Amino acid sequence: MTISPALFILILLALGAVGTAAGFALQRIITTGSIRGASIEARHRVEEGEAESKEIILRAQQEALRVRDESEREAREQRGEAQRIERRLQRKEEQVDRRLENFEQREHTLNTKEAEIDTVRAQVDELHAEHLRELERVSQLTMDQGRDLLLERLEEEIAIEASRRVRELEDAVREESTERAFKIMAQSMQRYANEVVSELTTSAVSLPNDEMKGRLIGREGRNIRALENATGVNLIVDDTPEVVTLSAFDPVRREIARMAVSRLVQDGRIQPARIEELVDKARDEMEDIIKKAGEEACYDARVQGLHPDLVKTLGRLKFRYSYGQNVLQHSIETGHLAASLASELRANVDICRRAGFLHDIGKALSHEVEGPHAAVGADLLERYKVNQRVVRAVGDHHGEEGWKSTEAFIVAAADAISGARPGARRESAQQYIKRLETLEQIALGFDGVEKAYAIQAGREVRVMVRPDHVDDVAAMRLARDMTQKIQESMEYPGQIKVMVIRETRAVEYAR
Fold it and tell me: H/E element holding 366?
């Protein structure tokens, strides 16, 4: 059977309406069940929340009780600590009060004592003033005069004490320095030993007979005039048998004349032309001798590298003598001694050796150039470009302007050692006596000196002073001033010892 579309649509619509109604009914049933389940679950949840909230409230109450207990405990501890601090402060306050009371009592006592002290001080001042007035009346001196007198006596005592201390220090330093100096000089002198006695260049020429004197003079004196003109030396013919004397300030010219005269005497042909010929030969030979002497001296002194002109100038010192001591040999010796002293004193050995060797080179020109030989030598060395330290040491080795360098002082010491050693120099009797007289006159020129004696060959002067004019302190000062005066006004080899003797004698007679 066929169904019509309209019917089919109606059926479908009816089925749809029934399905919808059934869906609504089913959904309602389901919704009602869900609501009931949710209510039950909600009820369970509410019950669980109430239980948890009760538990939380219980725990909160317990925590609140614990916090309250701790707070109360801390509050009790703080109150206890506050009470203890309060009690401590109270005790300290009581102590401060007691100390304050003690201080007030002490202040009151001090004020009382201060008043008493002021009273006593016033009494003491009054007694002191009265005592001073009494002392001034008894001593017949004012306070200012007494103070000046006391200060003067104190100054005298201080001066005496200072002089004593200075003397002790000087003795100690002198003893130590003397021992050290003796050691250095002994070592230096032992390291260099030279012959003691030096030969003097003779100015006399021996003749075979007295007839030779007439031949030297010649007819009307023409031979002697030719010889003197050629050599610049005076020929002295006197009554001395078989000897003629040559006189000249220049030792080189004197030696040339001696050589020429000796050869004339040996040759026998004495005439003006022969004299001039032999003098020229002697002069040429002297140049070779001087050069060789300078070279040998440089070799002996171990000084090399000098200008040839300086070497020749040094060779001229072979014919120069100072107080009987050969100047060239003295220069060599001084160079060795200066080097030894420099090695002991840790100075420049080469500079000191050269300066010591060249220190008297100015004496070779002393007859040609005016001025002290030290300054002349320094100018000569500076002209030939010698080391400035050597030039200064040579120029200052006599200390006219003070010791400007260590090398100059060492050269001066070596020069003194070489010239002052026993037997190195000798002087004429007239100069010796004059030096002793000058030494005694200098000593007698000081106030308070009673007697003065030069002893030990002029190396010591003993001075006797008046004990009532010169005390111990003044005696020391007198010795020092005397030494300074001798150094300034005298020339002498070595050193001079000044001994001031102050002697007091008490004489009584037993009857």
Answer: none
- The first and second tokens of residue 352, run together, are 């000191």
Q: Among 23-37, 115-129, 296-310, 408-422, where is mean pLDDT lowest?
A: 23-37
pLDDT at residue 5 above 60? no
pLDDT per residue as tens digits for the range 452-464? 888 776 778 889 8
Interatomic CA distance for residues 362 and 287, integer angstroms: 19
The CA dihedral of 281, 203, 458, 455, to the nearest 10 degrees, is 150
DSSP state letters, 394-456: HHTTT-TT---SHHHHHHHHHHHHHHHSTTS----HHHHHHHHHHHHHHHHTSTTEEEEEEEG
The size of the chain, in residues, is: 511
- Calpha distance 410→416 (Å, rounded): 10
In 3D space, the residue among 484, 440, 480 whose CA is nearest the CA of residue 463 turns out to be 440
Q: In this structure, are residues 500 and 463 in contact, taking their beta carbons and an 8 Å threshold?
A: yes
Q: Give the single-character DSSP code of 202.
A: P
Q: Is the pLDDT of residue 188 over 60?
A: no
Give CA–CA dist 363/353, Å, rounded. 18
Q: Residue 197: which pLDDT band, with cuts at 50, 70 and 90?
A: very low
Calculate the alpha carbon distances from 31 to 35, 39, 44, 45, 356 in Å: 6, 12, 20, 20, 143
Which pTM does this prediction carry? 0.47
SS (H, E, C) 45-80: HHHHHHHHHHHHHHHHHHHHHHHHHHHHHHHHHHHH
Section 351-373 average pLDDT:
80
Please state, in angstroms and rounded to a whole number, the distance separating the CA atoms of residues 80 and 316.
119
CA-closest candidate to residue 227, choices 209, 200, 247: 247
